[in-house]
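Pipeline run #58 for the internal structure catalog. This entry was flagged by the ingest filter as a single-chain record with no existing model, so it goes straight to prediction. Upstream metadata was stripped on purpose; only the residue string is passed forward. Reviewer on rotation: M.T. Logging verbosity set to normal.
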Amino acid sequence: MSPIRFIDYIDILLVSYILFKTYKVLRGTVAIRVFIGILFFIVAWLVVNFVFQMQLLGSIMNQIVNVGAIALIVLFQDEIRQSLSRIGTGDGRISKFLNRMFSVDPSQLVDAEVMQIVIACKNLAKRKIGALIVFERTKDLKNIEVTGDIINSDINARLIENIFFKNSPLHDGAMVISKNRISAAGCILPVSHNFDLPKEVGLRHRAAVGLSEKTDAIIIIISEETGKISCAQNGKLRINITSEELESIVSNKSEAKNDTSK
């Protein structure tokens, strides 16, 4: 038996780390049972091949392992996609570095698009029509988009107003703007349980804050009761922002202040 080298310790640590991170990703999902079953099979395969060196059973298990790699990709395609997306975004660090290097901001809206959004928000606020508009930044919002209906349309003020019109089937949900397009509408957002929020804020505001607690998205809220325009970002809510502040926030020229005010 050959002596254990230093690289072997690193090998074991890396495998343990990968298994632990995989467990964290799958924990709480149906796929966790499949993952545990696979772990047991891998342990049995290692024992058969390297401890007892059983050739016939080992060769059968080897074939299963070879085919199983493709089966795993099929079984865990959603989890693999989400994990690769998280690696790509890296909590924004990798994306921000690449954007700075190439001077590209995929979330930056042109002036015409900004004005279309501002006009729509002002018209909705004037008529006291409630609205939730989510602006994707560095963190992918595909998991939010799939809860609603895919739109994939150019940004247009009349379209935004029609989506949030009270008789529209999509008016109760949130609209997601991603990559300079209206990607989805009627989306469901996670509700915040922050007890520090003002008592008078409704479900729309709590949903906006809830998403801002989990992502770096900027969410614009229009109150159905008061017509006030608010903004949620980084788990904070700013109520009754001006048209100039709205335009600045939407165009990403400045971030919303991290305070809660009326």
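catalog note: The radius of gyration is 24 Å.
catalog note: The beta strands are 131-135, 149-153, 174-178, 181-187, 218-222, 229-233, 236-238.
status: ready for reviewer M.T.
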